[in-house]
Specification:
Dna Ligase, domain 1; single chain; Rossmann fold; 17 strands; 29% helix; five-stranded antiparallel β-sheet; 28% strand; 3 domains; D-amino Acid Aminotransferase, Chain A, domain 1; alpha+beta; eight-stranded mixed β-sheet; 9 helices
């Protein structure tokens, strides 16, 4: 299987916790050709998508990437294109999906689905019953009034954030709440998600990985003392965990939509039985689950992708 990974530059990859790296390495270990490019390397010519790609051999020790000579290739020459560029999910990201629409080959995850569903808003669109009370608005007065009506703590976050960026906690009696709303909304120009604080986050934010809509593993990300955010990017401690009945109920509800829209590799976040986010752009967690559960999820994922590519 010939793979192209559309991703961040190799020098930005932290291999100790990167899911893209282990998928590339799995392909290399099978002696399957692997190449990479960054989104700006994509271009179209006469209705066909091309890219300036760099062949890569992925190693299990430094130097982790042995790169070849960049050259131009039509995307249809690959069996699969892995869209693994990290957020933010901005207009540059969306434009990348337009290029991938013309790939003429399998794209993981499906570019049409990436355009349709924002990671934070998709829950609102399809499964609001799994969310805590939530308001999405750019109106400063509406946001402030909603916070004031909530009985306890409230989480504020930008609709397009990632990795815990811009996430703050406030309350009705917080004298800074007005300033926080102004800052996050950029004086009413930017949408903000206001959500009832889930106290169970102190016990951890559960990340569940799903392959073709099927749950394959989970980890618990426990925030460090003094920080509400349960993101690995900001130092959350990772612990082993199991799926409970509520987790499986949520996974079962999501599965048909994930399959329908070619969301082959996704990650969902659950806190206290509430679904807070559906990660479809470049979910991570494979390496942590492998380490804690003694599995090799990337082998399963590559098998699934290879089977899809073979089916055409």
């Amino acid at each position: 299987m010939r793979s192209l990974f559309v991703m961040d530059p190799l020098e930005r990859i932290h291999v100790e916790g990167d899911s893209t790296y282990v998928c590339m390495r799995e392909c290399t270990d099978r002696d399957w050709p692997v190449a990479m490019c960054v989104p700006s390397d994509l271009y179209s010519r006469d209705g066909h998508a091309w890219a300036r790609v760099t062949p890569v051999l992925t190693r299990d020790s430094p130097p982790f990437f042995d790169v070849g000579t960049p050259h131009d290739v039509r995307l249809s020459d690959f069996d699969v294109v892995w869209q693994r560029k990290d957020p933010p999910f901005d207009m540059h990201y969306i434009f990348t999906t337009y290029m991938l629409d013309m790939a003429g080959t399998l794209v993981v995850n499906g570019p049409a689905g990436l355009k349709l569903f924002n990671e934070k808003m998709w829950v609102q669109q399809r499964w609001p019953e799994f969310q805590p009370p939530t308001l999405v608005s750019c109106d400063k007065a509406r946001l402030t009034e909603w916070i004031s009506a909530e009985p306890g703590l409230v989480v504020l976050k930008p609709w397009d954030g990632n990795g815990g960026r811009g996430v703050v906690v406030t309350s009705a009696d917080d004298r800074n709440r007005g300033s926080l709303v102004e800052l996050l909304s950029e004086e009413g120009r930017h949408y903000v998600i206001a959500q009832r604080f889930i106290p169970e986050v102190e016990q951890g934010d559960k990340r569940i990985l799903l392959f073709e809509g099927e749950p394959v593993g989970a980890i618990l990300r426990v925030p460090t003392s003094g920080d509400y955010r349960a993101n690995m990017h900001v130092g959350a401690v990772v612990q082993r965990t199991e799926l409970d009945r509520r987790d499986r109920e949520i996974c079962d509800a999501l599965r048909p939509a994930l399959v329908e829209h070619d969301m082959v590799f996704t990650g969902i976040d659950i806190i206290g039985g509430y679904l807070t986010e559906i990660n479809v752009t470049s979910p991570t967690g494979i390496r942590e689950i492998n380490r804690l559960d003694g599995v090799k999820l990337e082998a399963d994922l590559v098998d699934r992708v290879a089977a899809r590519a073979a089916r055409g």
